[in-house]
Amino acid sequence: MSACTALPDAFLPARGQREVFCGLTGIVWLHRKIQDAFFLVVGSRTCAHLLQSAAGVMIFAEPRFATAIIEERDLAGRADADAELDRVVAALLARRPDIRLLFLVGSCPSEVIKLDLGRAAARLDRSCAPGVRVLSWSGSGIETTFTEGEDACLAALVPELPAAAGDAAPSLLVAGALAEVVEDQMARLFAAIGIAPVRFLPPRRATALPPVGPQTRVLLAQPWLAATARALGERGAKVIPAPFPLGAEGTQLWLAAAAAAFGIAPARVVQVTAPAMARAQQALAPHRARLAGQRVFLFPDSQIEVPLARFLARELGMAPVEIGTPYLHRFHLAPELALLGEGAPVREDQDVERQLDRCRAARPDLVVCGLGLANPLEAEGMATKWSIELVFTPIQGFEQAGDLAHLFARPLDRRARLRV
Q1: I need a surface site. Which of 33, 46, 78, 193 has the fewest CB within 10 A?
Q2: Up-side HSE of residue 265: CA atoms within 13 Å toward CB?
Q3: Are residues 9 and 96 in the same domain?
């Protein structure tokens, strides 16, 4: 717990107006990950438009998500919400017999009218068993922000994980949705280092939930999984403190933390990762030449801001003017804060008007922010990077280090070309 007390001297909490996406956005990457799951949002047409726009799915496609739209008669109490939901779920399962896990996802409208989706999920789970499991979680903007939707989803899965055998050998569970190509790369590296067995949460198939127990060691792949880590801890698992796998340095330290938990020497990690590390550093070199010395301002949006700032500062030579993050989990981010060092300008939460004033006064070379702020700041002459792209794009691991750096170099290159 000593790591929980370490905060940079420049750390300041903020309290005020915020601008964030709601937790429903997490469905955009989760529905691609769990291939036999389906996400049924109980919400409004606005919820449906958000998901359709964010996912970029054509109207004729068959995505693994949909919205059960709350109409005026539902709001007026003229319809039986349970009966309506049962009807929609029955029609969905008849049309999509491949579904093995159905999530009922709460939204702002369903929270406002007090729909008890937890009870509805329990009822439907009994009626749909054993072929389909039904769970619920909230993606409401009242309760969650942006990436917290994934945390709520995975936390809802944890009670369903099978118990590991009492005499089971230590195992590694990587928690957090990773792109399949990144997951495959990580699995190969873990195998080469000598860590086994290694499982991932969420799994690619809902029928292959990983077991968990006191011998399970958890390595977080994303910094926003506070509720998931807590739920895994209640099942006896232990979280391995580690930086997050962004950039060459972050990825190697992430792997090294896992190796240390399994009693594997650091030299083995260095030996296994040397070729990938060399490729990553080669990919980073041209971007470092472009970005070194540039000042960057990070607005709070996804909770990935602190690991990003560490990557930008230590591997690309950029200077963070301000590192905003919606929530700062001291234990999970302690290794990142230690790498950033004393004086890192970290701010938790947001008072958006004051933050905009500080950003305008600082005039940074690059601003990392949400979509709602990007266009106005661009109009004021600042180069911006959409923070949502850093969640939708595969950026973890050695092989993606150059791609991650390119995401920050691209806005500056675009602005330079426009000036010409």
Answers
A1: 78
A2: 3
A3: no
